[in-house]
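thread from #wetlab-drylab

HS: before we spend reagent money on co-crystallization trials with N-acetyl-L-glutamyl 5-phosphate, can we at least see a predicted complex? here's what I'd submit
DV: go for it
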Amino acid sequence: MSSTIRVAVAGASGYAGGETLRLLAAHPLVEVGAVTAHVSAGSALGEHQPHLRSLAHRVIQPTTPEALAGHDVVVLALPHGASGEIAAQLPDDALVLDLGADHRLTDADAWRAFYGSEHAGSWPYGMPELLLTEKAGAGAVARQRDHLTGVKRVAVPGCNVTAVTLGLQPGVAAGLVDPSDIVAVLANGYSGAGRSLKPHLLASEGLGSARPYAVGGTHRHVPEIAQNLRAAGASTVRLSFTPTLVPMARGILATVTAPLADGVAPGTAARSVREAWSEAYEDEPFVHLLPEGQWPSTAMTAGANTALVQVVVDEAAGRVVTVTAVDNLVKGTAGQAVQALNIALGLPETSGLGTEGVAP
Ligand SMILES: NC(=O)C1=CN([C@@H]2O[C@H](COP(=O)(O)OP(=O)(O)OC[C@H]3O[C@@H](n4cnc5c(N)ncnc54)[C@H](OP(=O)(O)O)[C@@H]3O)[C@@H](O)[C@H]2O)C=CC1
Ligand SMILES: CC(=O)N[C@@H](CCC(=O)OP(=O)(O)O)C(=O)O
């Protein structure tokens, strides 16, 4: 590998590709190589991403194995299906990060049930903070980052998945919550849906209005969240998951509740719950448990690679309540991808990534 790491970005005209380029442009150890897309091939990147000033003159190429060859790293920010197809044609010695869903699930049946197509296979999962209770020795909890150094393929997690998993997993790993009755309700910004035209995403439909989507257990992120919580130690996961589009460009606010586990008394659980969440994240650079009484908001994470988490015990309901905020395009996608890139290549995990939001 040359001393400067060359990174190609496929899907450069889209939201996730654009955010990846914004982060890479400021990364001290990498340079941006080819930028590719689909119908926008042949046009200048600045026509699609005018905020990326240093890259505005770049010409977008078609997404082909030839255009993506000769790079140390290839980031695929493509619709699912498209990324699996091109990934299969990329060289084994390049690090490939797939921001889409194609390689996240280990269960091919779950893939077929939720995506309705053939499974492309599973890659190492790019959520460094994921707790791996089942693989830990006595008294230790492993984390997914331990399995990312040196890998050549990374499946970057879904944005909703990131918020829900990071919010609840400490309680699952510590055996404090019952994962067989999880309820998750999310407020989601519009950029999560990508930038292609869809009637329900028109400003006239969305401004001043909030509305749910993928209601009733149909969202594709349900099996991915269950996979993560099983890794964190859950034997049975039952999840009611309801996302809601709200009129903001970026951000996810995930409110996740679960009953206290059998034998955990509501009146005395507050301290052990606080300790479990605090221990899980005290050394994490990008996942922060907020001080007691302070609640996350999406604005606090805008533009930052942070997940901000709060947790309390609702004694009357006998449930743990967690609220997590992420920027769907940063910790929910592009930032998490750069974090995984750093780990995979043995760079400092925080290179090129910030924790400061842009509120208000
Ligand atoms: N938006 C988000 O918050 C998140 C997105 N993701 C994932 O990232 C991926 C990209 O999403 P997003 O950026 O939102 O989507 P966009 O619709 O904004 O962008 C899609 C990009 O893919 C390109 N593209 C579309 N079809 C093809 C194809 N057949 N071959 C090659 N390129 C193609 C488009 O090029 P062109 O414009 O030229 O047609 C465009 O650059 C998806 O898999 C998504 O699920 C993951 C987490 C969060
Ligand atoms: C608002 C909105 O529609 N958000 C999308 C975000 C999904 C996403 O981008 O994640 P994948 O990579 O798994 O597709 C959704 O909830 O489906």
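DV: The mean pLDDT is 95.
HS: ok that's useful, forwarding to the group
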